[in-house]
Amino acid sequence: MDAIEPLGGAEFAPKQTYLNTSACALLPRRTIEAITLLAEETADGRPAGAGDFEIVAEARATYARLMSVHPDRVAVGSSVSVHIGMIAQSMPAGAEILFPEGDFSSVITPFVVRGDLKTRFVPLERLAESIGPETHLVAFSAVQSADGRTADFAAVRAAAAAHGARTLVDATQSAGWLPLRAGEWDYTVAGGYKFLLCPRGASFLTVTEDAQDTLVPIHAGWVTGEELWVNSYGPVRELARSARRFDEPPAFLSYHGAARSLALLEEIGIERIEAHNKALAARFRAGLVELGHEPVPDVSGVVGMPGLGDRQSALRAAGVLMSARVGFLRASFHLYNSATDVDRALDVLAG
Fold first, then answer.
1. CA distance 158 to 131
2. Whole-structure pTM over 0.90, yes or no?
3. DSSP of 122-162, one letter per residue?
4. pLDDT of the chain along its 351 residues, tens only?
5. Which element (helix H / strand E) includes 85?
6. CA atoms lying within 13 Å on the CB side of residue 214
7. DSSP of 278-339, one letter per residue?
């Protein structure tokens, strides 16, 4: 097979075979440098305090370009569960929320704890056909966390439009390697610390203008005002007219790093990263079949291997990092991986 070299150059220097981005990404050097600089400036007593809102705006704008939406449609936060919690609390009582079976807990639980919503679960492959006139919202991960399966985006979008259902896509396992047009969905969310290469504490929410009208900014604070610096005391005079009204106060260390990480992804290009990750995953799947294993059939850059979860410890002992999820061994490929990484993992699995 042809060699597949890493992307990103000297930004990454892993000391082991790291195939675990679905759990947490490696940080680029530029990101570490930005975090370190801010920490040192804060320790020295920098004049503007502990961070820069202009850098947060830079991260917002770059993420918007990566997701093919205007920056006015992007809110920043700290975690997917907080974004989804706000969406869940905005649902009308009795609304039907449709999920794939076994989707990630943070997508599902904020709706379940409401106690007054109708939650329904169907197999992922039947998600589109299960959307009906009673469905208020269909919520799903673009790439399933446990096994790497991808949803049929076009079918889900068409069925939701036909029945007037809103859509929520968790892009945590896809944003950063799989091209997505966030404006095609009412809401998208993404945790930054996986394929977006950001530090923990950075996450993103996109909201269409239409969906914004029914979303309640339940954690609104001074940073959510249309004018940023006039709302420190008393009620916010006017909430931001953009999706910034749904912002959480930014964790500046995370966002100073996120701005650098997202810039790197934009420099390389998501389409190029997609081709790279899928090529590595295809090489790995072919090798698994040769070894007598049956990986989950998909073209995703995340590969699930049923029944091999107990091999995680042996792989780790050999310097190969993967995840074990509900009996699946999970390999996740990203721009810093190479064909050598794939072959090393296959050698260990063959041993």
1. 10
2. yes
3. E-GGGHHHH--TTEEEEEEESB-TTT--B--HHHHHHHHHH
4. 568 999 999 999 999 999 999 999 999 999 999 999 999 999 999 887 789 999 999 999 999 999 999 999 999 999 999 999 999 999 999 999 999 999 999 999 999 999 999 999 999 999 999 999 999 999 999 999 999 999 999 999 999 999 999 999 999 999 999 999 999 999 999 999 999 999 999 999 999 999 999 999 999 999 999 998 888 899 999 999 999 999 999 999 999 999 999 999 999 999 999 999 999 999 999 999 999 999 999 999 999 999 999 999 999 999 999 999 999 999 999 999 999 999 999 999 998
5. helix 80-89
6. 13
7. HHHHHHHHHHHHHTT--PPPS--SEEEEET-GGGHHHHHHTTEE-EEETTEEEEE--TT--H
In angstroms, rounded to a whole number, what is the distance separating the alpha carbons of residues 140 and 170?
Answer: 6
**For residue 86, how many other CB atoms are within 10 A of its CB?**
24
Count Cβ atoms within 10 A of the Cβ of residue 243 and give its class: 0-12 exposed, 13-18 middle, 19 or more buried: buried
d(CA 121, CA 115): 16
The residue count for the chain: 351
